[in-house]
Amino acid sequence: MSSNKKAFYYRPKTNQSKSPTVRWMFVILGWVFFVLGIIGVLLPVMPTAPFILLAAGCWARSSRRFHFWLINHKYFGKFVRDWENNHAVPLYAKCLATIMMTISTAMLFYRLPTDMIWVAWLVALVCSGVAIYLFRLPNA
Question: What transmembrane ranges does the database entry give (predicted)?
Answer without folding.
Answer: 21-43, 91-110, 116-135
